[in-house]
Structure formats: C-alpha cells, structure tokens
Amino acid sequence: xxxxxxxxxxxxxxxxxxxxxxxxxxxxxxxxxxxxxxxxxxxxxxxxxxxxxxxxxxxxxxxxxxxxxxxxxxxxxxxxxxxxxxxxxxxxxxxxxxxxxxxxxxxxxxxxxxxxxxxxxxxxxxxxxxxxxxxxxxxxxxxxxxxxxxxxxxxxxxxxxxxxxxxxxxxxxxxxxxxxxxxxxxxxxxxxxxxxxxxxxxxxxxxxxxxxxxxxxxxxxxxxxxxxxxxxxxxxxxxxxxxxxxxxxxxxxxxxxxxxxxxxxxxxxxxxxxxxx
Length: 277
Ligand SMILES: NC(=O)c1ccc[n+]([C@@H]2O[C@H](COP(=O)([O-])OP(=O)(O)OC[C@H]3O[C@@H](n4cnc5c(N)ncnc54)[C@H](OP(=O)(O)O)[C@@H]3O)[C@@H](O)[C@H]2O)c1
What we know:
Layout: E1 7-10, H1 16-27, E2 31-36, E3 48-52, H2 62-65, E4 70-74, E5 76-77, E6 82-83, H3 87-96, E7 101-105, H4 112-119, E8 124-129, H5 140-146, E9 148-151, H6 163-175, E10 183-186, H7 194-205, E11 210-213, H8 216-225, H9 230-241, H10 253-258, H11 265-272
Parallel strand pairs: 1-2, 1-4, 2-3, 4-7, 7-8, 8-10, 9-11
Antiparallel strand pairs: 5-6
Helix pairs in contact: 1-6, 3-4, 7-11, 8-9
C-alpha cells in the first residue's frame, strides 16, 4: 500500500539543510516528522514530530516511516564521515513502509543509497545541490579575528547555492507529482572564484578582507585537524582541485522549479553578516 496522507519524514532534520526543509514544509502546512539519532538533543520547530532512527542501521528507521508518504533522505553518515553503505536495506524499509515519494540530497556524487532506492523502483527525485553558500561560515572565525580568508585552489569556480533554495525545491518535490525519476542539478545564479566570494563578503560586511592561499597539503591538514575522515578529505580536496562542470555552471533548475531567480550570495551575506562580525 502506498501512503498518501501527507506525513513527510525529514532525515537530517537537526542539520543545516534538513532543518530548513522541516521549516519550509511546516510553513506550507504539511505534517512533518524529523528523524534524528539523538532525540534528547534535537530541537525541532513547534509542530514537527521527532522520530528516532539511524540511516546506517535501517531497521531502526522503520518505526519513523510508519504511515509516511514522503521521505527527505541524506546519503552521508556523520558517524563514519563517509557515504552510507546501507542502501539496499534502507530501500527495503522505505518500500515496506509504502512511502510514495523520496527526495534524496546527494553527497557530491551518486552513491549506493540513490542507486538502491532507484533499483527498488521507488519514486525518487535526486537533488544534486552543488556547493552550499553556508560553507562560507567556515571563514567566520578568521574573518572576525584577522579579516583573513585562507583557502587552497584560489581559482576554483563555484555556482554556490543558497540553502533556502534547496529547502524550497525539496518541499515541492516531496509533496508534488511530476518529479519522480528526475535528477535536478541545483546551483545559484552566479559563478564565483574565491576572490569574487571574498570581495562580496567584504562588501557586505563593509570591510576589506585579505585572501591567503594555502597549499593543498595545508588544506588537507586543516580538514584532518577538524576531524574529517580520510575519505571526506579526499572527496573535498578532489572536488576543489578539479570540480565537475556542473559545479561551476549555472543551472536553470531553481528558477524553473520555484518560478523566481535563485537567491544571490550578496543576499546570503546580508542574512549572515553577524556571524562574521
Ligand atoms: N556542504 C556542501 O557544499 C554540500 C554540497 C552537496 C551536498 N552536501 C551534502 O549535504 C548533506 C547535508 O548537509 P548539511 O549541511 O545539512 O549537514 P549537517 O548540518 O551536518 O546535518 C547533517 C544531518 O544528518 C543527520 N545524520 C547524519 N548521519 C546520520 C545517520 N547515520 N542517520 C540519521 N541521520 C544522520 C544528522 O542528524 P542527527 O545528528 O540529529 O542524527 C544531521 O542533522 C551532507 O550530508 C553533505 O554530504 C553538502
């Protein structure tokens, strides 16, 4: 039986993108159940149910999916810092629950979870969101303290996307027909090098910022010290050294799906300026 009662289960509900997906669905009047591994720490907006489950151990997710008609899915396991390996078991639990629509946020490349959900014949929409604007928050401390941004690969170009645009697209694909089997490449409407990005950030803060180029090894060491797994370090550095074309090519998908232009980086900076002051 396929459920069509409107309960949307959101994985990553305590996180950056999932949290915005929860808020956007609630704003549109949908019933939302947020999935978390740590319910005692989860702070979800009023109106959202909290459900416990670990995507790496799919049987634990079964109760959370009871009666759900849609699922927002992540493909990355925070515990291992690597893509989830539980695809086939997860797909079975989702299919058994009668979930009608799955929207999967990829982790930078198509992985075993998306493949397993597709192989199970579930109606999946994949959101290939390129670099999030919120990655810029990693610069907040050095900008506040020294007015400096340190990165390797200064010429890397990126069509950064605003997190709220991802959330609004997800809210539609989770609750509307017509998106099954589609892979949407999601970007913003502008392409930036690090120099462009630092300039827009500085303009928004009303202050001159300096860019200091790191070597690749310094960038790797910084990620290792921040606790990233070896696999995550290789993935991020590999992307920065040689990003896929989609990462620096403006995609029309946000505008086509939302009927308005993608939010700009200047807008993101204005919304987050306090974090850099
Ligand atoms: N940063 C980028 O530019 C970028 C670009 C494309 C794709 N992505 C992908 O986007 C995803 C979401 O990013 P984000 O910024 O929203 O991440 P985030 O703020 O770190 O949130 C991650 C969420 O995932 C949940 N989670 C992690 N492992 C889980 C598991 N095994 N079972 C259930 N829930 C689990 C956590 O929930 P609990 O701790 O509450 O369980 C947390 O709420 C990432 O996985 C990343 O791979 C990132």
